From TrEMBL:
Its EC number is 2.8.2.-. GO terms for molecular function: chondroitin 6-sulfotransferase activity; N-acetylglucosamine 6-O-sulfotransferase activity. Belongs to the sulfotransferase 1 family. Gal/GlcNAc/GalNAc subfamily. PANTHER family: CARBOHYDRATE SULFOTRANSFERASE, CARBOHYDRATE SULFOTRANSFERASE 7. This is Sulfotransferase. Residues 80-94 have a biased composition (Low complexity). GO terms for biological process: carbohydrate metabolic process; N-acetylglucosamine metabolic process; sulfur compound metabolic process. Its main location: Golgi. Residues 282-474 form the Sulfotransferase domain.
Length: 510
């Protein structure tokens, strides 16, 4: 019995020692991996381990803030200071305040529109102007990153992003934009990535950069096929081939050189969201709101329904949040087949016409947002009227030169003769339809205005007018006559009111 007890005690001591030895080895290995040799391997090479919390300097370096601060503190070279004159500010600007302030004189313009209203054509006119720094739908990045957030919920983020962009601070794009090419979120990057690597955002990361005249011309692109001041559409393929990506800080420097900055976007749902920016005297923000006949908008949206499906869902998600704001709720716009089958097999019809269903519902939300903007403009104080103007697509394409001059006067810009010839030629094309609906090209203006009559059925026209009738009334778009027996015979006119914001509401529906 004594021998058995001694054997058991030895076995327990051996098991306990083995457990302690194993625990010691685990702790030792963990210590070596975390702290051993300063994080280096046996051969002295740095291990590719996940980086720990970065220092403040590294974080500021990633966003470019530290570099901007050093550039602001650094005085200009003597030659540049002498050329600037005795009244030049320390940061190289002419005046006591920097760009974007009232003393600096920089003007900012937002083109407020929605999908398929001709906003790309309107923005292209400013893109062609030699005194304008233009951005094409930069808020596209935000909508893609926050999908499927509804349009109303994203308005605050859109406004904050716009504020940063108008101050030529493009670091906000790092929150939403992705560098070109695929990214693996678990991939390990070295501590310092070289300039131009996929880790860094560049001009090639900005939506629509291939047709931007600042990015596709000197000095950002020394090998550009045409100079910046020459009026003419940019060949996207030629720009991509001739203009290598440049760092965003270089684009910011170019942005500060221009007296006028213009942003065109289609994702801000309501004008009221811009009131904090419009009140800011340092921004000197002006808004041009573009409208188009909702029937023509619906016709154009149906041609590109697959491309607009995601955006339509985001707009339609705002429907129930917008209804309690005093607007009546209506039935969603249904495609003709779905409306005919509403009583029998309605669910199946909705499935077959899913894209048209979402596009029609989104158009109704957009028309209600238009109505709110129009009513806000009618009650606007004088200071807001001075910073806001309305434009109809039909006036732009049927009277291009006169409308262009009015727009440029609103922006305090000269009207070059080459730009007037450009807008005239772009509205005198041979045809309206294009295989690529988002491609900017010369179109037949009258066909672009009246194409919806031949392409929409009478039932589709009635549905659009039922959903958008109040906004159409304020915008002087007459409703279709009930006496016409065939499609294409609806009465239509395009009056050109001097100021749509103060147009009196008609008591009787046309």
């Amino acid at each position: 019995r004594r021998g058995r007890r001694r054997h058991r005690r030895r076995h327990r001591r051996f098991a306990l020692g083995l457990a302690l030895y194993t625990l010691l080895l685990l702790l030792l290995v963990s210590y070596l991996l975390d702290y051993g040799a300063g994080g280096r391997g046996r051969a002295g090479e740095e291990l590719l381990l996940p980086r720990r919390c970065p220092s403040l300097a590294e974080a500021l370096g990633d966003w470019g803030w530290e570099e901007q601060r050093q550039q602001q503190q650094q005085p200009p070279p003597p030659a540049e200071a002498a050329a600037a004159g005795p009244d030049a500010a320390p940061n190289g600007t002419t005046g006591a305040a920097g760009p974007g302030s009232r003393a600096g004189g920089k003007r900012h313009i937002y083109l407020h529109a929605t999908w398929r209203t001709g906003s790309s054509f309107l923005g292209e006119l400013f893109n062609q102007h030699p005194d304008v720094f233009y951005l094409y739908e930069p808020m596209w990045h935000l909508w893609q990153a926050l999908y499927p957030g509804d349009a109303l919920s994203l308005q605050g983020a859109l406004r904050d992003m716009m504020r940063s962009l108008f101050r030529c601070d493009f670091s906000v794009l790092r929150l939403y934009a992705s560098p070109p090419g695929p990214r693996d979120p678990l991939a390990l990057f070295p501590a310092a990535a070289p300039e131009g690597s996929p880790r860094n955002l560049s001009t090639a990361s900005i939506f629509g950069w291939r047709t931007n005249k600042v990015i596709c011309s000197a000095p950002l692109c020394p090998d550009a096929p045409r100079p910046r001041a020459e009026v003419g559409l940019v060949d996207g393929a030629a720009c991509e081939q001739s203009c290598p990506p440049r760092a965003l800080r270089e684009l910011e420097a170019e942005c500060r050189k221009y007296p006028v900055m213009v942003i065109k976007d289609v994702r801000l749902l309501e004008l009221g969201a811009l009131l904090p920016l419009l009140r800011d005297p340092d921004l000197d923000l002006r808004v041009v709101q573009l409208f188009r006949d909702p029937r023509a908008v619906h016709n154009s949206r149906l041609k590109a329904k697959q491309s607009l499906l995601r955006e339509s869902i985001q707009v339609l998600r705002s429907r129930h949040r917008a209804e309690p704001r005093g607007l009546l709720r209506r039935q969603l716009l249904l495609p003709p087949a779905a409306a005919a089958l509403a009583g029998v097999g309605g669910v199946r019809a909705h499935q077959q016409h899913r894209a048209e269903f979402f596009l029609g519902g989104a158009l109704e939300v957009i028309c209600q947002a238009w109505l709110r903007d129009l009513l806000l403009a009618r009650r606007a104080p004088d200071w807001l009227r001075a910073r806001y103007t309305q434009l109809r697509y039909e006036d732009l394409v049927l009277e291009p030169r006169a409308t262009l001059r009015r727009l440029l006067r609103f922006a305090d810009l000269p009207s070059p003769a080459a730009l007037e010839d450009f807008v005239l030629n772009m509205t005198r094309g041979a045809a309206y339809s294009s295989e690529r609906p988002f491609l900017i090209s010369a179109r037949d203006a009258r066909e672009a205005v009246h194409a919806w009559r031949e392409r929409l059925s009478r039932e589709q026209v009635r549905q659009v007018e039922a959903a958008c009738g109040e906004a159409m009334d304020l915008l002087a778009y007459p409703l279709s006559g009930e006496e016409g027996g065939r499609r294409g015979e609806f009465p239509y006119s395009v009056p050109a009111p001097a100021n749509l914001a103060v147009r009196k509401h008609a008591n009787a529906r046309r």
